[in-house]
Amino acid sequence: MALSGAMTVMESDLRRIARQARDAQAAGRRRRAAALWSRILSETPQDRRGEPYFEEASAYTPEFGRILVANPRRRIYLAGCGRSGTWYAFGIMGTFAGTYLAPEERHFGHFATIAGESQPVHIVKRIHYSHQFLPALPRPIGLLYVLRDPRDVLTSVHNGTEYYISLDRWSLEMKALRTLLDAGRPNMLTVRFEDLVLQPRQEQVRIGEAFGLEIAGDPTAFHQNFRVNEFIERAMHGLRSPDPSVVGRWCRNPEHVEYIRRLMPAITDTFQPLADRFGYDLARDV
Hints:
There is one protein chain. This protein is an alpha/beta fold. The chain has a single domain, classed as Rossmann fold. 48% of the residues lie in helices and 9% in strands. It contains 12 helices and 5 strands. It has a 5-stranded parallel beta sheet with strand order 2-3-1-4-5. α1 runs antiparallel to α4 and α2 runs antiparallel to α3.
């Protein structure tokens, strides 16, 4: 779908949401927003309260829809389990024309905060607990989901921590993805990390066609103009061109192989439907 056509659909849906919100009782809206805000404050450690959580509370109020309608943009939320290459995919999104990449991981409520940015395409990258709220992502907001071989995810090192992503955390992420796919969530594209690394140009074309984006740069050189803080650069093991050696890395480390063998029954139970759908061979060993 062309960008103009996609934005027309989005604006129509958002106007409908805003119209329904105006018809609702104001007192009821305030009660729901207050209840959500109270829950967030009670469940959030003191040092983690602030703008991101205010954005989350605001995302479920009518004002959120009104802000987006008043500032028509093409909006894409980029999600995926940790250590699945979401930062890499985020960098590639900067190779499309007219994109604004929000510099921090945030809830989709952040789209209202950045609504005034002039670029026609706004992209926000998922926060660590995004699997909990992805079903609530408004359909006019596109969803780009990055999927990676679970054996590489579960053995990925992050800031010196081995096995950074636990089996439980990964399982919850995959169950959320399966829920979205089973529901036939529109305006959504799932890309494999392995394809982004091994055939970045083809995947760039796929993404552009799915969301009506115009290619403006070389995906293999995304890092030349991609600016992140030191913490994120460490998480990416440095800004560089796609590195094919990261694909299947788990099977080149004997300790990781043994670790994965112990987890395979649980991995298979959770992931087999996704493996069948997206072409992962869970029977392959070393």
